[in-house]
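Thread: Newbie trying to understand structure tokens

Hi all, I'm a second-year student working on a class project, and my supervisor (Dr. K.) asked me to get a predicted structure for one chain before our next meeting. I've only ever worked with sequences, so writing a 3D structure as a token string is new to me. If someone could post the tokens and maybe explain what I'm looking at, I'd be very grateful. Here's the chain:
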Amino acid sequence: MKNHEFAFVAAEAVEAANEQGKFWEMQDKLLADPSLLNLVYIARTATELGLDMKRFNAALDDHRFAPRIQTDVDEGNRLGINATPTFIVNGRQYRGAPSYEQLDAAVKEALQQIGK
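---
Reply by user tm_fold:
Sure, no problem. This is what the structure looks like when written as tokens:
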């Protein structure tokens, strides 16, 4: 599976937004419509969220979060994860957008297996 052209920089942008307390807001905006994802949209979203753009741009320019993100990418590759989102419950992967019911059942089954 080919990653989106701007997936890595989007991950960096989410981490940079997190530094300013806006992780979920940035993540939700950037994942809402992948067809909009580009550098202009990322910058516009950061501005709309009221981020300190000097701090935000500095974090992106120096790739402060790239090593952590690359570690996550490498771990995902090692586990055979090739879709976002992917949930792993008790060793089983749920790709794409599994329903609440699917995940709830998987968690309950896993808890039963360990006697909880």
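A couple of things are worth pointing out once you decode it. The first strand starts at residue 86 and ends at 89. The chain has a mean pLDDT of 92. Feel free to ask follow-ups in this thread.
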